Amino acid sequence: MKHKAVERIAALRAQMAERGIDLYVIPTSDFHASEYVGEYFKAREYITGFTGSAGTAVITQTTADLWTDGRYFIQAGRQLEGSGITLRRMGEEGVPKIKDFIRETIKTGGCIGFDGRVISAKDGEEYETIAKEKQGTLYTDEDIVGTIWQNRPGMSKEPFFILEEQYSGRSTAWKLADVREKIKEAGAQMHILSSLYDIAWLLNVRGSDIFHVPVVLSYLIITQETCIWFVQEELLTEEQSAYLAEHKITVRPYDSIYDYAAGITAETVLLDEKTVNYRIFRNLPESVKKRKKENPSERLKAVKNPTEIANTITAHIKDGVAFTKFMYWLKTHIGTEPITELSAAEYLKERREEQEHFLDLSFETICAYGENAAMMHYAATPEQSAALKPEGFLLVDSGGHYLEGTTDITRTIALGPITDEMRRNFTAVLRSNLNLAAAKFLHGCRGANLDILAREPLWSLGLDYRCGTGHGVGHILNVHEGPNAFRWKQSRLEDTAVLEEGMITTDEPGVYIEGAYGIRIENELLCRGAERNEYGQFLCFETITYAPIDLDAVDPKDMTNREKTLLNDYHKNVYETLSPYMTDAQNRWLKEYTRAI
Fold first, then answer.
1. CA-CA distance, 552 to 556, in Å (whole number)?
2. Rounded Cα gap, residues 205 and 473, in angstroms
3. 8 Å CB contact between 329 and 500
4. Interval 64-79: pLDDT, tens
5. Which one of 369, 373, 438, 447 has the fewest CB atoms closer than 10 angstroms to its CB?
6. CB of 349 closer than 8 Å to CB of 361
7. Are strands 137-139 and 111-113 parallel, antiparallel or unpaired?
């Protein structure tokens, strides 16, 4: 059966030839540089057939290439078979970067095309530079994929709600005042905000315009006196209109941002060139100075306020109850009734839905059995959902949105007998997780400084994982939030965030053996203040995820006494926190699975 990409790429090439476009770039993005996107924006998936959340396609009249990162090498390799598309494994030796490839590929006088609304200002300027170097041109004012995409899903227009201060911890007026102060410090009179996460945080609104990401498609422009929200106006209720009026927020049509940008008269505009799209950027008058800095709200929202912290811990207790009930069910039912990856994920979802104030999953549950777990972001489907057997590993990466906060947890569960190698590698991943969680460090450290603590037990075995060790987590927002992260590979250290008290970051080392199994253990860490002395301010982490780590897969002989104590202390806390919410049978099981080793 012919791969769908073959005909779609041929149709795209015909449209490119008609317009004189030699090379067309299709990123994974919406108009706001979101990590995950709504169905309307999945142009790259439509053209290539690759369903992962990260990737960029580059199409010429004779070649088709797709770049993606290490989370998706296995998945992309499988999904691109027969498509004629070359997989470019980002970060691997000999693989060119996208822009270097374009520079080498485009001929003198050639035309580079892309939809200027789904390319960031930063990337657009770099493509502009390449075109000038080649005495060529850009074609950016049309969505070429849209001309061939039949039955394209409509753009999302979902209702939204106002997040009350008992959950947000800060009023919109308070947050706007903080951002306005940052605008002034940057020497600007206006700030263009395109990040959907930052807008939702700033206005204390939550929606559902992206699957499992509670945001509202919109733009925001802030001055010292005004705040304009470009949103699909038909969504507003009377109550929401009154709320916006109370905070002196003016509403304009979503698509009118481009014309508005063209008429801006401010001397200096503050914007994040990584999230503001190229068309908005190019529509700004030449007289306007562009102050290119990260959105002030990015670091403001990364440091959770006391209300957000207390609420998030509550959310994790609820989530821990749901996950532990799921783990108990799985351990006591495997081999006695049919269970598949999808039915297991559905059972876990039902346990979350039982929790008060549950809103949604924070991402589509990854429930991956055996070799499927070697694909870091594997997704089972009704057509492909492995039956679980009482043997081997099941990896479950999942989370929920509650009114109190967002969770992200991964557990790898032994469903029965496992090999010595699997046990050794599971124990190494556990040690990695515990070592990072136990870190104590001076203020000024970044995730890049601490990442080695997680990787050392794996590196000592000649193993590694092709991704970061952890990411920030939004508060009822995107589960992958910056700028805090644990990642040793950095192009520039100054682009990463200093870890601050109040930041929440995941701790998720892993081992992925293609064709065999995958292991990941993930907890969330809250950065807390420790002592302050002549050396400076010390910081540490508090683990706020509550669920057993499967002792059936642990080899205590491979652990130090310190590591055993860390695990025992964690499990003691898990039992004390969760046992009040469990049945007698569940508690007997939980006591066994949180026993000291």
1. 11
2. 17
3. no
4. 999 998 888 988 999 9
5. 438
6. yes
7. parallel
